Amino acid sequence: QKEVEQDPGPLSVPEGAIVSLNCTYSNSAFQYFMWYRQYSRKGPELLMYTYSSGNKEDGRFTAQVDKSSKYISLFIRDSQPSDSATYLCAMTAGNTGKLIFGQGTTLQVKP
Amino acid sequence: DVKVTQSSRYLVKRTGEKVFLECVQDMDHENMFWYRQDPGLGLRLIYFSYDVKMKEKGDIPEGYSVSREKKERFSLILESASTNQTSMYLCASRPGHSPLHFGNGTRLTVT
């Protein structure tokens, strides 16, 4: 079993939809959680960075962590075609520890 | 903004060649990393370095070596390139306590 599971998709939604991207994990020691966005032929760029449980909002993006269920989510409101990309979750036990990545979910937002 | 620069976007090399992938960061980060990214396998850590002249093996170091002579530069070396090393190679850096910042990647094809 992988430490971090992420459905690779692809996920296709119409413009304006609310998108929910999710990861599950098995290591209860994970405390730091990240979401990266990767456009085609580019490197991943950091979208959200959260510590422990709870929600964090940044514009149209909300990151949610539920440590009791070992489940993290990224919500995108009012999705745009420019949101079409691969979204990678990542997590680590300590802030300087090894980062474990999900496989990435490919999202397509259709105009 | 942090800038991680990988010297080549695309490389084509022949089997058996020695290949150098170069990465430079401009934010005085202590830690630097090399990953490879393959469809269905996600991001896999090859090597990382937490200081000049220091290196640690990641999950898949076989067939690779690294060099860090200066703090800002981290090189990945394929001693004798093979076709199974065809991949997207991503360099990343971070200071002691922070998420990773990635370069735009080098797509290497070994024929």
Short key terms for the protein model shown above:
heterodimer; A: 111 residues; mainly beta; six-stranded mixed β-sheet; five-stranded antiparallel β-sheet; 11 strands; B: 111 residues
What this model shows, in words?
Chain A is mostly beta strands. Chain A is 0% helix and 54% strand. Chain A has strands at 4-5, 11-14, 19-25, 32-38, 45-51, 54-58, 61-66, 71-76, 85-92, 100-101, 105-110. In chain A, the strands form two sheets. In chain A, strands 2, 4, 5, 9, 10 and 11 form a six-stranded mixed sheet that branches. Chain A has a five-stranded antiparallel sheet with strand order 1-3-8-7-6, with no helix packed on it. With 111 residues, chain B is mostly beta strands. Chain B contains no helices and eleven strands. Chain B has strands spanning 4-6, 10-13, 19-25, 31-38, 42-49, 56-57, 64-70, 73-78, 87-94, 101-102, 106-110. The radius of gyration of chain B is 13 Å and the shape is globular. Chain B starts with a strand and ends with a strand. Classes of the chains: A mainly beta (111), B mainly beta (111). The interface between A and B is medium-sized, with 21 and 21 residues.
Secondary-structure element order of chain A, N to C: EEEEEEEEEEE
Radius of gyration of chain A: 13 Å
Task: Outline the low-pLDDT stretches of chain B.
Answer: none
**Biggest sheet statistics of chain A:** 6 strands, mixed
Query: Please, how many helices of chain A?
Result: 0
Evaluate the radius of gyration of chain B: 13 Å
Please state the oligomeric state of the protein chains shown. heterodimer
